[in-house]
Design goal:
single chain; alpha/beta; 8-stranded parallel beta sheet; about 45% helix; binds zinc ion
Amino acid sequence: MRYIEPHAHMVSRTTDDYTKMTLAGCAAVCEPAFWAGFDRSSADGFYDYFCQLTEHEPKRAAKFGLPHFSWLCINPKESEDVKLAEDVIALIPKFLDRSNVLGIGEIGLNKNSRNEMRVLEMHVDLAARHNQLILVHTPHLEDKLKGTRLILDVIKNHKNVRPERVIIDHVEEHTAKLVLDSGMWAGMTLYPESKCSPPRAVDMVEVYGNERVWMNCACDWGVSDPLAVPKTALEMKKRGHTAEAIDKVVFQNPLKFLSQCPKFKIPGV
Ligand SMILES: [Zn+2]
């Protein structure tokens, strides 16, 4: 089996995880910028993080034969401080030409607050001005439906963003259709127990189809599973999905979306 891991926070993971992912057939890994588990005290903290995502982590991944790509932003959890967000967003253009940067992400909302909305709009505008792909995080639990609607509206209202260049991750049963109907891509972010489990993700593929969807593990410093995508592929196999249908969801679809950025290249593909 081959697969692309389109959303994994590898700076939080051990080298064992890189080995396991490679053994499981991972052909490339993409790492969106996110919350470190604590709030950074200044834009300098983000400058160092962006260097880690664009210089250090690709070298670490290369030792395991894995091409590594990244996305840049200030995550929604730290977006409450608008001045900090402005300072961080001002740093991003210098990094956009780096060879492993695919776009702006994971942006979005956490608590659906007014300040988060403002920072989301700033990010969408930044992506539009620099012709970047967009990767979005949606809030969890009771805020998810409302947050997803707000995010879709912000993106749809920007005349220079094409929906097929946006992926909304963390979709669930009640938001997948909304996202797909908007023309954007839907990402199923897999968790070992809570939120979207592998069986629930396969249910969604069976209900909503396999066009414009991808799966990702979003493994980070919390309870998460770097092998969630191949485990979901196995769940598809158990249910009788063909090898071709599985390859489409875990390899060809992310390849299609990510290849909209000319920098996304996997050796031999
Ligand atoms: Zn994430």
